[in-house]
Amino acid sequence: MRILRAVRTFPLPVRLLLVNQLGVNTGFYLLIPYLAGHLGHDLGLSALAVGTVLGLRNLSQQGLFILGGSAADRLGARRVIIAGCGLRSIGFGLFALGDTLGILLAASALSGLAGALFNPAVRTYVAHEAADRKAEAFALFSVFATTGALAGPLIGTVLLLVDFRAAALAAAGLFAVLTVAQAFALPERAVAPAPRGVLADWREVAGDRRFLAFSLGMVGLFGMESQLYLLLPDAARRATGWEGAVGLVFLTATLANLTLQLRITTRLQRHGPPSRWIPLGLAVAATGFLLPLAAPGLPGVLGGVLLLQLGLMTAQPFVLALIPAFGREGLTGTYYGLYYVVSGFAAALGNTLVGRAMDSTATAPWLLCAGLGLGSATALTRLHRAGRLPTPARPLPSEAR
Question: Rounded to an integer, what is the distance from CA 129 to the centroid of its chain?
Fold first, then answer.
């Protein structure tokens, strides 16, 4: 009820995009977790071909975020959101209908491009519409996204009882519905004419040393967050010898997000700027990787998951609220796009390093992740104390809204 009351206090476009994110994550996680199995087992593709298809989706998304951000700035976030959802519907439809490598590669590229378009565009639209309540809006955004990430695999599991094609068509249909709904219901925002070319915009953002220092300082967050899908599930599986223990990792993280995210953000934002809370969140998340060393077994792993999630919930809404404050309003999408390019490659590098550490000693991956988090916390603390981070407008007290 608290979440629904908070949702109703935001403008209609923000409410629509919250529902949109619920649908986007439901559709995505309805299909993607089962894609590798379909390619390898159902279609009989080689491991190389499976890796190529999956890698192309990641590469086309992570590498093209900057294009999606620039498109949102120049064409309007609404148009880019609609285009992204439409492309994802086509891409997922091709996964359902295609069984040749060429069609699968096209589906992968289209679905990756779709994410590169609508991810920065949605955040740009929310940032503009939420005004001085960005952190609270992005906290709700996280709650709706997490709900979709939980619902998607559950629905996918049921549809897979029919076959993979049913799951893929359902996901494609959901994105088609979202595309039509946004085309009719999401208001258009006026876009000021761009005074110069796209490359000049990119040079301006890439030349913002404060923003680059901030983005690079956040690499620990990206590396730690990705361990919800690598190190922590593996640790739960090893601690119990039970494959189902992996579900407990995601259940712990999801329940924490649904029950605590909004409370944490609304309370912290009353007591200081975002730059104060981001390093704290990073430090808390880092301790989540030390707890399993101090308390081996499943309780220690789940306790680590909870601490990691608490840290992410502390930092992430304030990170997303801070990014638009680095530059002028006409470049909000480009700033988000560059931030997500850095985050994507940092997460990939982090997984590579952690994967290698997992093959060495039992303690190495945990110490590596804790070190990444504490290093990022230190870097952001220094940026905050040096006054190199912007201070967005503080939200009005609730009674003054």
Answer: 20
